[in-house]
């Protein structure tokens, strides 16, 4: 499709202010009379609270109130209502809120918090799903099974299993009976942090007129609005949640996280705004973690290479609360097939309570974990069968006409994993893999990937679009910019739809539940698809209004009027025309009488035919799949075990590239996040549930010199049917293939099968020594 | 016990009274309301809080305010008075700004580098950027932008 503005580079509308330090982030907000909160965390990861003595803290200078959870009676959760704003009688993880101080300054709050005295009775600690699932394990939630939950979630009362997900397609036993080769292995994707450079924070202000004002750096202001309204028994309209600039998210600022805790605290200082901003330690221990999934996987194949069946048991160390993690476990179930056809699927995942901080969304959740397993296991299977792993994959790729694990039929419009794989193969094979030399081993690895759409009931995205009388356009959305470039997408898509240059499109920076249209939450790489479609719909409505207004002037049927962004004209006689500007507010007749309609419209868009799932896990995830492939060349230094990524190749079928520079930035960023998890990042949690690396000194995020030396990034453009101009999202996808392709390349280099990450130099050296190969 | 500290901030002489140990970052953000300098890790790793102290890029979250007597401090606000600074423009044009939280710190780091050494080698650019964490970009655009910034700054100096 030929486009005017889609497919070209345009500068972000927020870039200058951000580069000048003038953008307002959560912690930059200063309000009259603002108070500051500090939150006490427990000494134990699992313990009964015997007593809390707040008297000394209350006497400290500047203290307005000391808050505990003792009188807190409400629980919350969107999926499983198992969360509490502050511990009541026991603590379940090391980052839980035990008590809080509200003071006139942060410093005073921090000083006073030291004077709260808590007596605990420690309980046994379980930090791994397998430990929590063994017979005799202590129950982390005695009420498991009694909490309200969505019908698709199946807790197992009397155990620590908060959700048991099952997908059954065909008969896996039959696949085993027909198979010539069966391979089985267990893989582990440990707990990591999204670790945006801006930590979580919120301000809550219970106003004396009964309204609640909240600011949060969250991707789900409307969920927060409805949650606070429900908890404090006021109408949703009485709660206003505002979102300033967000300094990165990668998932963990979606779903309600800290806001209930800050609201509970602020409800003890009514009439004044109360701010809490996470330290890095609190951000790592007291918000949401990512991943934490062990995947036991079995693949059955025929000797000609055809995959017959797949069995998955995935064990998710979901943390002390499962509300946000249960979707992660589900996704890790049905996405573990990767982009392959298996007629027989037996996929089960277990959402398991553990005494660790709760898991939530983290870039691609469920996909990187499950596909780390399948892409590693296929390489192992290929070796067992004596086949080339690339060829083995090629024989089994999902594509038009085939049916995925959920029972959804794939069409051409879903894109082509095959074409992406071919591009990656070409880019890698353009230069031969170097032979081992004195200093280095060299390896090459590959992984294909699939990203399913992220839907939910009523997961729609709204848009308000105004075509102003001077030719400028105002678009108000509920979608959150977290750095992914959503605002540029809005400008380009609205510009394209209205044939107006993108720089004339102003998009709202602050999202505000009072003034912005509804959006469920901005997650799952879905804004371009659904938000983009909402914008096109609104633009089409505006054009229809403009044509109606023009029909008074041109004295011609509306459907015989053309529109080119600047003019409305009679199709058979384009010289008979009127400027769009002249009918943006209606039409004025020569005698000064005006009539018509304002050129503004609202709209929304959701995933078509997203449905729930039946008892076998069959259902519609919402049509819009994305496929891709990734691969890398790496070197391993013999003396240190250090891995350097020489070349990382990514290709995704994104339907249509909207902004080439921006999409490249998404991919380079996502790939490096995946490299971080593969080589460096892991939350170190001791058997006592204490986190030993809760800061960036020990939790190592990759730096500039650890990025790939060369990045090749290509796209296939098979137009999508849902998104604007054929486009699909790509925010999460670049993470997916990093771990499996890197570990496949590590095997290629040194012949060692790593099944968990991160693969650190220490582990590589130890494995080489064991193999008797180290020099 | 209050302690008076006098220094230059963004070209102007100021005096502050400190009644306790306070890091420069807290002084700038909380007492002086200069919120362009960001806090990302609070232990001197991420570089979001980078400012220029006596010509050198420092992490303000680990810099004591008590050491400021007679010092010269430049923050992102001092570099963003009206026009867009060439370093900022180069980073914007290269696509280095995604969430933007790390950007002011990187701007200050590069400003310190190119002021001291307008012809800094690529390796020196990499060395100073390694003091900064960016979770969004994967650094490719930042490296590219830094190189463009170097040529823009050199061109300015030659005029």
General description of the model:
- The complex is a heterodimer of chains A (775) and B (159).
- Chain A is an alpha+beta fold.
- Chain A folds into 3 domains: 31-123 and 198-247 and 253-286, Aldehyde Oxidoreductase, domain 3 (Alpha-Beta Complex), CATH 3.90.1170; 290-405 and 414-455 and 611-772, Aldehyde Oxidoreductase, domain 4; 461-605, Aldehyde oxidase/xanthine dehydrogenase, molybdopterin binding domain (Aldehyde Oxidoreductase, domain 4), CATH 3.30.365.
- Chain A contains 17 helices and 29 strands.
- In chain A, strands 3-5-1-12-9-10-11-20 form an 8-stranded mixed β-sheet. In chain A, strands 7-15-14-13-8 form a 5-stranded mixed β-sheet, with helices on both faces.
- In chain A, strand 13 (290-301) and strand 14 (307-319) form a beta hairpin.
- The longest helix of chain A is centred in the last third of the chain and has 28 residues, at 527-554.
- Chain A is globular, with a radius of gyration of 27 Å.
- By secondary structure, chain B is of the alpha+beta class.
- Chain B folds into 2 domains: 2-78, Beta-grasp domain (Ubiquitin-like (UB roll), Roll), CATH 3.10.20.30; 86-158, DNA polymerase, domain 1 (Orthogonal Bundle).
- Helix content of chain B is 39%, strand content 16%.
- Chain B has 6 helices and 5 strands; from the N terminus they run ββαβββααααα.
- Chain B has helices at residues 24-31, 76-79, 86-94, 103-116, 122-129, 140-158; strands at residues 3-9, 12-18, 50-53, 56-59, 72-74.
- A 5-stranded mixed β-sheet of chain B has the order 2-1-5-3-4.
- The radius of gyration of chain B is 16 Å and the shape is globular.
- The model of chain B has no long low-confidence stretch (mean pLDDT 96).
- At the A-B interface, helix 1 and helix 15 of A face helix 2, helix 3, helix 4 and helix 6 of B.
